[in-house]
Write a structure and sequence with these properties.
By secondary structure, the protein is an alpha+beta fold. It has three helices and four strands; from the N terminus they run βαββαβα.
Length: 102
C-alpha cells in the first residue's frame, strides 16, 4: 500500500482515484455549502479559507480516518469524509486508512 502525495494543483478526481486505488475506500470532497465538489476542480480552488497556504503532504496509510479528515482540513481547509468502498455509508473514524476499504 503506497502513500499518496497530495498538492494543491491536483484535481479532485485524481485524488479520489488514487485514494480508491490505494485504500479501497471512497473519498468524498465537499465545498463550503456541504455539496460535493466538481471532480475537475483543483484542490487549491476548493479551499474554504483563503488564508490557508496550500502545501504538499503525504497521506499515511496508518492514519485513522479521523486523523486524515482533520489533517486535510488543517492543511487545505477542505472538508473530506471517507466512505465505504461502495460509498453507501461513512467509514468508522477509528479505522486505519490501510484497512478501511477491506
Amino acid at each position: 500500500m503506497a502513500e499518496i502525495k497530495v498538492d494543491g494543483r491536483m484535481k479532485v478526481k485524481t485524488l479520489r482515484a488514487a485514494f480508491k486505488e490505494n485504500f479501497g475506500a471512497t473519498l468524498r470532497v465537499y465545498n463550503t455549502s456541504n455539496h460535493f465538489v466538481d471532480d475537475e476542480a483543483l484542490l487549491c480552488n476548493v479551499r474554504q479559507d483563503d488564508d490557508v497556504k496550500v502545501q504538499e503532504f503525504t497521506i499515511d496509510p496508518k492514519w485513522t480516518v479521523d486523523e486524515f479528515e482533520k489533517k486535510f482540513m488543517d492543511v487545505y481547509a477542505i472538508k473530506v469524509q471517507v466512505a465505504t468502498a461502495d460509498d453507501s455509508k461513512l467509514a468508522d473514524n477509528n479505522l486505519a486508512l490501510e484497512v478501511v476499504g477491506k
